[in-house]
Amino acid sequence: MTSTANAVRKPICRYFMSTGTCHKGDECQYLHHPSVGFQKHFSNGQPPMNDHQGMSDSMGDNGDQFFNATFGTETIPEFPFNRPPLGRPQRAMGGPVMGSGMPGQGQGFPDTQRMDMHGQLDPRMDNLPPGAPGMRMDGYGQRMGSPTHRMDGGMPPRPRPDHGLPTDFQALNLQIPNSKGPNPVANEFIPKSATLTHSASSPNFSTLNGNGFLPPMTSAAPPPSGHMMPPEQMSSAPGLGGPPTSMMLSQAQTMSNTPPPHLAPTSVFSSASPNHSPHLSPSNSPLMIRRTASPITPLKQNVSAQGQKKNSTATIQENVGGTTYFYSPEDFSLQHDALQLPNFSMFPSLPPHIAHLTVKKNMPQFFMPDELKLDILNRHAMTMAQIDTTHNPDIPTEVDNYHNLFPLEPPLANPMQKSARFGYPTTCYKAVNTKDGLTYCLRRIHGFRLSNTKCMSVIDMWKKMYHPNVVQLREVFTTKAFGDNSIVFVYDYFPTAETLMTRHFSGPGAMNGYNQSFGMEGGSSRSFNPSGKGGMNGPRQHAGLLPESMIWAYVVQLSSALRAIHAAGLACRTMDPTKILIYSKSRLRLNCVGILDVLTFDNNQGSPLAVIQHYQQEDLVYLGKVVLALACNTVMAIQRDNFQNSMELIARSYSADLKNFFLYLLTNQNRPRSINDIMPMIGARFYTQLDSAQLRSDVIENELAKEVENGRLFRLLSKLGTINERPEYNLDPQWSETGDRYMLKLFRDYLFHQVDENGAPWIDTAHIIQCLNKLDAGSPEKICLMSRDEHSVLVVSYLELKQNFERAFSELLTSSHHANFT
Ligand SMILES: Nc1ncnc2c1ncn2[C@@H]1O[C@H](COP(=O)(O)OP(=O)(O)OP(=O)(O)O)[C@@H](O)[C@H]1O
After folding, report:
1. HSE (CB half, 13 Å, CA atoms) of 562?
2. Which of 142, 200, 474, 484 has its CA 20 to 30 A from that of 76?
3. Distance 637 CA to ligand 1 centre (A)
């Protein structure tokens, strides 16, 4: 062990930092930092160079690869242990860095702590050398797991105080704040003390002697779990129980008698070794461990399946160094049959039913795939799109309860051009409702004066009609805001939605390749494939024709909507490619429902419901026409003259069921058609649709699961950001350069500002995520923080950081008049 004197002004031995040992022993010219497995000299500048610096990580990954982790492969790629270094940049500062970004990963939960190979409590194991039998080893023969990671070189077992930490998911700050409390947000972070003074905030500091031993706990002043010591003072530290430094004096004076909270039995880490120094390679990205080992370390928590603890026998007393420790054997008992829940949260891994899906390679594992992300981002962008009203004086700034009108279609050359479907000029706008702040779609019917409000009874029926394949009608109002008498129908807005007409019938040539793909005029069609198998490009069954599965997917959705509409005693009346919205890959919604019921309301005829059956029959015929046009890939297919040819193409290219579907809907029938008659034609294809919908739901749900954890970390970072280096507290020593926030400031550097041996920024998302997770969970694992001037070293556990963090944030909330943090 390096002597205390040697510890002064020496660069830290990186070999020692990385492995916890150094083959040169006392002869090494560099500092063997006594307390933790330094993995790299934290530096804002150049890290120390020494003859051990050949150590590099065995993994060539960097943060980018963390993003690019793939899934969808049959097997998770193996990364063999002990493989030769690949030259990965090393970290600038080392704390114990574990595998998966989850607290406890690799550091050992109670099952491995202080247990010998037979699961017996064996405190001696704390002193075993690296590689000793029974130790958990990482891929470099380094110790893993708390029993083997002793930063104090063999500290005796500590008493296990009740530190008041939650034992369940509360520890994750996931609980919903009590809204009834005076400060619901503050409830999330209950201050440990009412006011935060410097001394109150610093029970975590202590002297650190040159041998890396904590001063022995005494009844007057049990050893704190964090240590801070300027290097120049390390030489003068007289060893165990040495006088505290000037800075530490005040802190030591205020130390409570309460043992370090991370020893409390209430935590999942309760039986963990009080000091962890896993001595992992500094340049081991957590990502590597994540790939090579299960992210879930077996938990041994004192929660049994029956909710019962094992019977406690006598409390054990142990006198070490003049201090009596009390602990119960149950704290160490293995409970293989017990339900073990973590008291932290993290994204564990892909569930196998998703992981084994064949998806694109290089799909990010911890963030959503680009395709989905872009889709969502586009929708967000479209929802927020605005238009400069000064250049568009035609668009009023406000219409009824709506503002921020944004036209959804380019201005027509002839603004008075009538819609073929409605017989009036129409315009669509996206607009924001002033009352609820939501974005809706306004469809203005120009120059329509509502003469009879009786038709509003039908509107009320439509407003109550909810179906996932119908664009919901919200309200109807008349307005003169456009300078005329207009009636406006307000619908739900589906950003990036397009019409079926645009998606499928706006290809080159107005006829959508009708003649070519049908080959009716000239006889032979170059795209016709009588076998019906194999397509030229992707999903196309034949060039120009949609795959039958897609057609049935549309049929299922459209018929489902019609079924609900007809069952409600209504008729769609807008079954038309220009009035069917499509978004995502194949999601359909019937648009503009209810408009014709108002526009064609006949005073003499009474309610449109009187002729509803007629309109329902029309719906079915139009359904057949829309689907026929899709199947033949042209709207020309539905013309009477082309019908025979169209049916021949269907017979050649698609199943008999699809042909029967068209024959049923588009030829004369002896009895009224019913949407229910279509169901047998769909048959088992319905299951196919259901299956794919459920599969998609699974995939999306998995994406959501990732974002839950990402959101949690975002909240954590937000809180950290509010605490770190607040300018208004710049001159307040309690806030910036000393005390709790100083630790958090250094932790921020530890998270984000490390550099490699060349002084270049070391960026590894896996490291950031892992550290944040450990902070959130309050892991007892220790890390080493170094001041920016590199004169001070602070050894602190995540648990202490978490407590400081919560105190600091809670205090911020208390002093804030307008706290709003959810
Ligand atoms: N509820 C809605 N949500 C999102 N976009 C919509 C909605 N309703 C319509 N749109 C979009 O507004 C645009 C115009 O729709 P519209 O129904 O007027 O189509 P159109 O082809 O212009 O029909 P018409 O010939 O009857 O005017 C289309 O691009 C459509 O995607």
Report:
1. 30
2. 142
3. 23
pLDDT in tens, 322-365: 777 777 766 655 555 678 787 777 777 777 777 777 666 666 66
Shared domain check, 390 and 251: no
**Residues 638 and 692 reside in one and the same domain:** no
Give domain status of residue 649, yes or no. Answer: yes
Do 177 and 188 form a contact (C-beta atoms < 8 A)? yes
Residue 721 sits in the same domain as residue 761:
yes
Q: Which of 378, 382, 384, 409 to mutate to test the pocket of ligand 1 (most atoms within 8 A of CB)?
A: 409
Inter-CA distances, 146 with 49, 106, 154, 266, Å: 30, 8, 12, 17
Distant-in-sequence contacts of 524-530, Cβ < 8 A, 24+ apart: 528/652, 528/653, 529/653, 530/652
Rounded Cα–Cα distance for residues 412 and 424 (Å): 13
Nearest CA to ligand 1 atom 20: 578
687-715 pLDDT per residue, tens: 999 999 999 999 899 889 889 999 999 99
**Residue 344 sits in the same domain as residue 401:** no
Tell me which of 648, 665, 683 is where a domain ends. 683
Centroid of ligand 1 to alpha carbon of 517 (angstroms): 28
- Give the three-class secondary structure for 86: coil
pLDDT over threshold 60, residue 505:
yes
Tokens of 816: 């804030």
In a domain, 309, yes or no: no
Which CATH number does the domain housing residue 508 bear? 1.10.510.10
Shared domain check, 380 and 396: no
Q: What is the ipTM of this complex?
A: 0.98
Whether residue 816 sits in one domain with residue 703 = yes
Last residue of a domain, one of 643, 665, 683: 683
pLDDT per position as a tens digit, 111-125: 323 333 333 333 333
In a domain, 308, yes or no: no
Burial 21-42 (b: 16+ CB within 10 A, else e): bbebeeebebbbbbbbbbbbbb
Chain centroid to Cα 491, Å, comes to 31
Please determine, for residue 667, whether its predicted confidence score (pLDDT) is greater than 70.
yes
The answer to whether 496 is annotated as binding is yes
Residues 6+ apart with CB under 8 A from 644: none
Which residue's CA is the closest to the ligand 1 atom numbered 25?
419
Q: How many domains does the chain have?
A: 2
How far, in Å, CA of 127 to CA of 278, rounded? Answer: 13
Q: What is the CA radius of gyration of the chain?
A: 35
Give the domain range for residue 658: 385-683
The string of pLDDT tens digits covering residues 131-142 is 333 333 333 333
Q: pLDDT higher for 246 or 735?
A: 735
Look up the pTM and report it: 0.61
491 known member of a binding site: no
How buried is 797 (Cβ within 10 angstroms: 0-12 exposed, 13-18 middle, 19+ buried)? buried
Say if 594 falls within a structural domain.
Answer: yes
Q: How confident is the model at residue 467 (pLDDT cuts 50, 70, 90)?
A: very high
What is the 635 CA–ligand 1 centroid distance (Å)? 18
Residues 330 and 435 in one domain: no
Q: How far is CA 762 from the centre of its chain?
A: 24
Lowest mean pLDDT among 181-185, 306-310, 583-587: 181-185
Q: How far is the CA of 499 from the centre of ligand 1 (A)?
A: 6
- Co-location of 694 and 674 in the same domain: no
